[in-house]
Amino acid sequence: xxxxxxxxxxxxxxxxxxxxxxxxxxxxxxxxxxxxxxxxxxxxxxxxxxxxxxxxxxxxxxxxxxxxxxxxxxxxxxxxxxxxxxxxxxxxxxxxxxxxxxxxxxxxxxxxxxxxxxxxxxxxxxxxxxxxxxxxxxxxxxxxxxxxxxxxxxxxxxxxxxxxxxxxxxxxxxxxxxxxxxxxxxxxxxxxxxxxxxxxxxxxxxxxxxxxxxxxxxxxxxxxxxxxxxxxxxxxxxxxxxxxxxxxxxxxxxxxxxxxxxxxxxxxxxxxxxxxxxxxxxxxxxxxxxxxxxxxxxxxxxxxxxxxxxxxxxxxxxxxxxxxxxxxxxxxxxxxxxxxxxxxxxxxxxxxxxxxxxxxxxxxxxxxxxxxxxxxxxxxxxxxxxxx
Length: 388
Description:
Helix content is 28%, strand content 27%.
């Protein structure tokens, strides 16, 4: 990554975000796109669509009879967090959690609070109640401990998440942050859009769409809202959903060992033919520097795309301390499985950027992904036919 990319990644990781409260991440994305002259717009549910200036442009791109498949890169702008619900006193706020979370060592945990204007103050968790399933926080109280940026605000304008020594910092090639999932994916889509625009100089229509979604952490709500618009239905050209995620580490998907060619998630496997293309691209572009497995630690927006009839593939950056739960520990972790900063590796992000660029090359064998393998099989049959 160059200095400009480093600055953009740090800026994105530093933004406050939670399900349905993605405005600061969206604002950074829109500013970067506008400065570069890359077309974009917001769809009716608030997702940021990159590569088109309007719904009409979107429909024209989707219905272009170009045989080159349209790559729809998807990443989400939210991260698990809470919304304020009501004030219990001048310094005690009742909250409702949205998305996954650690479930141990929560009392006294540090949190940040923000509004549509930016960071507001800090606090500490208390009186935590878990969901009946026990897999995440349901409700809690936040005791305000920091200096407020202004007067007390209406409870439902506040939101927040776990806080650490800084929104983002580096230790060697590791990047620690309050929220890497999925702001790293957002960064990859923006970087890919900037790279494509620079190379084409905006003079030709590219088979690229970026979709920065809202509220993925509560069940792909932004992606579902986009698919239900029906804008992709009846497309005469192939449309391939490419999910970009920051996914929990697993055996065979370790931090620092390269980006992961994601064969599937907890719910389903992905399109076998298009995965063959992605695998071939990774073998050529990152030989020995990528990983490949079913990432069953969670589900992703590729599942939502498949449910709405789109073929999907996926790429992931391995994530330490998934959803701020101290699986791997490290600096800032209160206790094993307690609140902890997420972390990713710079080399994995650089590998992800390279695979995104390579996937946009024209002439990949999307229509005949198994052609070379079939020729090999045919030669094998010819060689051994006399034994049949």
